[in-house]
Design brief:
Chain A is of the alpha/beta class. Helices cover about 30% and strands about 20% of the residues of chain A. The first copy, chain A, has helices spanning about 35-45, 80-95, 110-120, 150-155, 175-185, 190-195, 200-210, 240-250, 275-285; strands spanning about 15-20, 50, 55-60, 65-70, 100-105, 125-130, 160-170, 170, 185-190, 215-220, 255-265, 295. In chain A, the strands form 2 sheets. An 8-stranded parallel beta sheet of chain A has the order 4-1-5-11-10-6-7-9, sandwiched between helices. Chain A has a two-stranded antiparallel ribbon with strand order 3-12.
């Protein structure tokens, strides 16, 4: 089944927005299973109807949206998979399509950002996550789901002073783990700074900083609290609420969005399928902030 | 087991409040299973004790409460079931009993409202739900769980300017789906209008509008966020919190409550039984707003 | 596996902080299973890393922490188990170790408080719970998980005007159940008083009252809302949020903490293991408020 | 996703074998949910590879197999759904396609058999089930999942002395419930007659009786023991083993198979998805007994 | 709900057969939860109809069967509970009723056997179990679920040469654990002696030995293989099949049955409820071997 | 926790038998998660007691058994992990220890067999599995969980005419998939050849062929039927029974066992933990066939 039963398309077809499954999870440190997420998210998306009642967004009235299926990643080899992702993203971006990736673990953002860089130059990033994912390495390896943003900085893929990391928290290997990010120019908004409040003001501020710079949204589902998104591999308590997640995504409306991902949904740990359902909704909300989307007057 | 192990009674016995199971779920569009809800809600209600510690309500000290069992609905035919519900409700209302229904899907509210109309005239309604349930039809059928409030308006069962729909949200078939409701005079409070705030002021306002008009409370469990009420058939993210649910029900104290329902609990999708437990508590809170209930001074 | 894979130690070894499993659940009135909690909490604790990113706490840099294993309680006899707990706690306290207990049901707090009294005199208590646990008896028995704080008062184990019960709620056997507590001098903060707000001000107030009096923290996981902590034996809706739980524990920083417990996690009802994961995090946060812990400058 | 990722086709296309989803479950007496089975069975079928290692069957080498999707049944009305099933089956049969239905509850076999009759005359039936499904009515209704074979006899759809009911058992409303079947000429093989033995001899006997008469295979998953097929609505202990199920289906090789169904899989009660996986395999085995299938020499 | 929705009766009423819930599980060594079994078994029993299709038994046509509810055991004290069980059983037996107990853990069989002895003298026992339950003590305690048959021998409650233990297996504390039983005169039939064969001949032999001696049937659900009865506290692989369980119970027809129990169902570990469903069926089969039951000619 | 709470030892310590965890699952084609199996199998092994009641084996009376923990495999790289496995196994074998591996996926058997070859020469193998695991490659990769026995033959690690593959079945990519194995001299016993019978005679035959040749036992849990071992990544219906599994392992008594593994347990798909419990028992039974084990006379 395609996402929301929309049409299928081939990689490289000139659609405005493309759903792309990337079932890679061998860069996971803790619980694997994110390879099953594209299937489950598509399955739960069947409950979605076309119009966004809260915002008035009409994503299917004003642009072409298609599901290009899953990338044929190599289940046994991270670097070969990176090449497959990059070459497919190259075709997608060249065709003018804005890709919305269904991960997979967070390691997939590195080859995506590489391609973004080659087409758009260094991008702004809005990164929702419990973790900075900026470790130097994990168990000696440089390509893992805990290291992509470190690599992205080293490879100069990011417009560092337009990078926002929202929801970081939990326990760390060093008490200054987040300082490396700050030192690159990232704005780090820790989860506890978000507690008990609306994130609408934060997003207003972010939009002011980013302006019309090409912007990538990378949403790790573990940015949310485990009580609302249990189906993930590295849960950390005290995370964002669903309302805050919606405020963040809806708050991106007006930005020059060039790509989005929703990663780290781990279906084997999502017994009730609530996390996949939530993810399907969040991807729908991401579609609604595509620059071409028109809105119903409310 | 009866609800909270209270006494059994026959339909038509002159008790003040009656628990009524209505295990009908064949009007469900998506996931069936609500027929199993009366049993599960009763089962989880065994944890409840008689006094409401937060509000001081003493529902069993000042009135007679009984469980009249499940209505013998026809599992294969919606319209026949409607007749069974109406004729039983007629007996219940005539005896002076305020019924508290354990659904079943939301389609059951139509025959209930028909009977309410015949006894009380058009009623005020406080309707908590993710959906307006006011579609013209679903797949060509007029009697489904997505259409009862459209039918209720057509059949003039409602005092339309005293109808409040709280928690509506999600994706819709048309961007103006909620406008039909507003055009009938309903007050629609969308979920995103409730985010990050107490609903106590809203209820104060509602009580002011309704005054002492006979009032029916229809509570679809999917009005709540799926993270707190996963066991339902058509979940929509971004819903009300448990605290808001309690604020709404407790905020009805003082109204002229003539009936209540709690619908759309779907036990097969409620692995942890948390939704049934929540529903049992909400039904208990509904009992506490029965006009005859006395309160302990706090 | 030990908690967070820390070192093992023997009861009575002179470590600064000791994790103690107390797998007793035969004093449970409703759903048993808490005997399995120490194992599951330790299992989920493997995800934790040493530093507290939000507060800067460095619990392992400045003190010795060890896991002393499970106490060899008698699975068939409550009173014999109480003696085993008391005699082991005596050794622990005498060695200067601050014990962090993994329950077990809440009945274990009575022999713990007895030993605390013998070493420190009557203690201040911060008690997070849905229930006051101050019944006179349950089904005629005086030693159960619903009675320890009644016994503790009778045995003069508590500095009653420095006892705080946070999160009480639900239905009760009598409308004045909480008044007994208030009459002893306890400060009762009901759950509905906490809704929709930060508990940081409350903790500031509590710290002012307690000063440097020896303080015990007893955390019943059912103090939290069932939507965030479903794996417990006596869930009550409308409870504290995870954020509030963290505010309470972190708000204890600066107090003279002499012991902590985390009780009533019931793994058979925690299908997703989310409650055990949450409990492991809360115990970690408790370690961080040990008086010897140093903090990273933020 | 299509069954086994095979090609899609339209109803009425001239393929040799067609997978047909029939998501009807409103004729269920006990636990609904079979409407979700076609989706889940297709999902689990992705594990299947083309060749049958045990029998050597090569179903895709010698005939065209396609998935024609789900029939657009009316979710709210049994009789309207029957008409939809019949008219679609008419097109399927006329095109020369052998349909393999994914139910849905067992009520769907009645409109299927009606169409079979109109094309082939009265058919032989191999019916695996815990129940005879030959009640006169259920709760006063004549079209339910407990009555189709009674209706089929009344409507003269069956070659009664070539009907075999295998696996019947459990508790009944009358001690002579199975006698009605025997009186029609059916051969009833109760489950306890199958215990502890191979069914290969039985199938040899059945093939002898049926000869080359057009034969329909109707497989209710509850024919199997609940320990191997828990995900069904009316489980009865003491049922057939998986090995016996395979012996029955493989034993049909050589018969003039004109259609098959696999019904009563109920995914909400199939937590581990084992029943859906089993069903997918059984449907594959049914494909392998299509008269056109060639076999690898073993 | 009563078992199979039969009538309720008071303890001591002169019915022929009585269902008795005994929700005691504090004598459990490993996983508690059997206290929840009576409720769950009754709940699953709603699927049962009155007649036994395989054997022709008509238990409700020829005798009075009632559900006397749960005994008010003391949840905190084993010995007090024993007294409660004994005194209630005394009333039951004196009234001429044959009790069918829904455990609870296996420790309940000791007070039952004590009462049986007082009324009938030492009884014959058919004991299905993975364990001999004849330990001298467990962790120093003499009244536990691993010791009742040792106590029963010591207290001379058994006609030892008419005691049959079927299904024993697994790992033991001593390699000669079963020899103590054999030395008392018990016939021990280990599980591996039952593999791959019908138990009909064994039961024929047992009936020959017992003759018309008063006989008690004690069925620990863990006698069955964990793959068919996962919901139990001390599972051991390689156990009896469901078919063998039915052969054993049905093979008791003709014996002078004075009481039966079905123990050690542990619902928290029975996610799919398959074990409770199985237990409900086995209790029904036990009812069918009550000496007063008439059979339909087959 | 160690396996069965036995002592810990270091790799290379001179114990007779060593439990070795190998949490590698990145060579899995379908569902990952086997990395979590060593932990879960150890956890469930706590139920095991020292003596084998059915066979009389006394594994801990006559030899030293220890748990050497988990090998520090590289979670992101198969070939690096192979080197880690080989070098650790080299130390284990040189010390005279017989290793019992807890997988992990089946790819781990290749580096194990390489080390076995270097110490013992080509080994005999008893391989229980649903799949031959002898593919030339999977998705172009040569080191995966579907290819180890092809590699083992190419690298001349096996005494091919003393290799037995038991339980093969299911669907295949080619109808002659198993012929490659037969052409190497392997004896392939397909699952359907095992149906409805004891495997004791087969094992007698196997022992005759192998004699005293060094023998390795590789047990893929998916050799068993999914109804008894649902927690695995590539389930195939119609597999071996638990009884047959026990017959195979017990039938190896008397062989010159030099190593064993139990692989492909996948805990995220083992909701009830029944598969891990089964695996723990099977590993215990493997310990019992270590050549040094003494037996109690039965």
């Amino acid at each position: 089944m395609t996402f929301m039963r929309i049409a299928e398309a081939q990689i490289g077809e000139a659609v405005d927005a493309g759903i792309v499954g990337i079932p890679l999870d061998i860069a996971t440190s803790n619980r694997p299973g994110a390879r099953l997420a594209p299937r489950e998210i598509r399955d739960e998306s069947r409950l979605l109807r076309p119009y966004n009642m809260a915002t008035g967004a009409k994503p299917f009235d004003s642009m072409q949206v298609a599901d290009v299926g899953d990338l044929p990643i190599n289940t046994y080899n991270i670097e070969k998979s990176y090449e497959i992702i990059s070459s497919n993203y190259q075709q997608i971006l060249v065709s003018g399509c804005v890709p919305f990736a269904l991960g997979g673990d967070h390691s997939i953002v590195l080859p995506i950002l590489r391609t973004m860089r080659s087409v758009y130059g260094p991008v702004a990033v809005i990164h929702i996550d419990a973790h900075a994912d900026a470790n130097e390495h994990m168990f000696g390896e440089i390509y893992t789901h805990g290291t992509p943003f470190r690599r992205a900085v080293e490879e100069e893929l990011l417009e560092c002073n337009k990078v926002f990391q929202i929801g970081l928290r939990g326990t760390g290997y060093h008490p200054d783990d987040f300082d490396w990010c700050r030192n690159q120019g990232f704005r780090v908004i820790e989860a506890h700074e978000c507690w008990n409040q609306s994130l609408v003001p934060l997003l207003t501020e972010i939009r002011g900083v980013i302006g019309d710079h090409p912007t990538y949204v990378s949403f790790d589902i573990d940015g949310l609290d485990p009580s609302v998104a249990p189906g993930t591999g590295t849960p950390e308590i005290g995370g964002l609420s669903v309302v805050q997640a919606l405020e963040v995504i809806r708050g991106c409306r007006g930005l020059n969005i060039v790509g989005c991902d929703l990663v780290e949904v781990c279906p084997p740990f999502d017994l009730s399928k609530a996390t996949s359902l939530l993810a399907a909704n969040l991807v729908y909300e991401m579609l609604c902030i595509h620059p071409k989307v028109q809105y119903h007057d409310k």
